[in-house]
Every structure is written in C-alpha cells, then in structure tokens.
Recover the amino acids of this structure.
C-alpha cells in the first residue's frame, strides 16, 4: 500500500492537458479552457488544498483550486474593518444629503437623543424638524452597578 503525502498526487488535473489551466487569453478559446479547468477542479478531492497552496505562494497565473488569477487576487485582498466601512458609508450618505438638500444636522447637548435638522428650501425659507432618537444608555445613567 502506498501512502501519498503530497496533495498533487491526488489532484484530478494531474493527467489533464496543462493548456487548460494556463490559457493564453480570457476570451474565446481561453474562456472555454478556463471553464473546462474549473469543471475538473469542482470534481477534485484536493481542490481546497490546491487553492490554499496557490494563495500561500501568491501564484499569479493559471487556474488553481478552481479559481482564476483575478478570483485569487480578490481572495488575497484584505477585507476592510467593518466599523471603518460603516462609518465611511454613513459619512458619505450624510454629505450627499447635505449637498442635495442643503441640510445641517446638530445633536442636542448632553446626549438627550434629539436631533435637530434645518434645511433651506429653494425659495430661501428655513424649515426645521426635530426627531427624537433614543439616547444610548451608559452604565452610569441606568442606575446599575457593574461588579
């Protein structure tokens, strides 16, 4: 009995035409070859190991683990921190609203939870709106003690 220690020995592509996995272009015959290579990869018992190796080694060409160069580039790209993304998106939305409607938003003092919005219409009149938004409850305000 032979024990195989290298994932490549189990790869479904080991006897396939290498041109399938290294097409010359992304269109036409190249696209057909990529699709055929991905079909072989989907049936491969070591697809995950192959993809992990390609990502670890920074392989930039060919189809590895069922992914193309572009797909692996996306997988290698670090994801931004969620909180940073959300904050940036909210800031951008606020800017867009202010630019479109000419609004300014202020928060009432002492964290009361009231948001006052004033906007100037096209005729120059000022409209005001106050929305009551629940203020965050801090441990000091809710009367409980942390132990």
């Amino acid at each position: 009995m032979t024990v195989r220690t290298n994932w490549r020995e189990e790869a479904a592509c080991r006897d396939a035409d290498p041109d399938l996995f290294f097409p010359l272009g992304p269109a036409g015959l190249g696209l057909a070859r990529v699709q055929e290579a991905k079909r072989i990869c989907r049936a491969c018992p070591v697809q995950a190991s192959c993809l992990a190796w390609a990502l670890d080694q920074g392989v930039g060409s060919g189809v590895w683990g069922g992914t193309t160069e572009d797909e692996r580039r996306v997988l290698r790209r670090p994801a931004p921190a969620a909180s940073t993304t959300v904050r940036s998106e909210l800031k951008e939305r606020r800017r867009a609203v202010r630019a479109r409607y000419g609004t300014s938003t202020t928060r009432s003092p002492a964290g009361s939870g009231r948001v006052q919005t004033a906007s100037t219409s096209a005729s120059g009149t000022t409209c005001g709106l106050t929305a009551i938004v629940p203020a965050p409850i801090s441990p000091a305000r809710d009367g409980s003690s942390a132990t």
Summary: The chain has a mean pLDDT of 73. The longest helix spans residues 82-101. The longest strand covers residues 114-120.
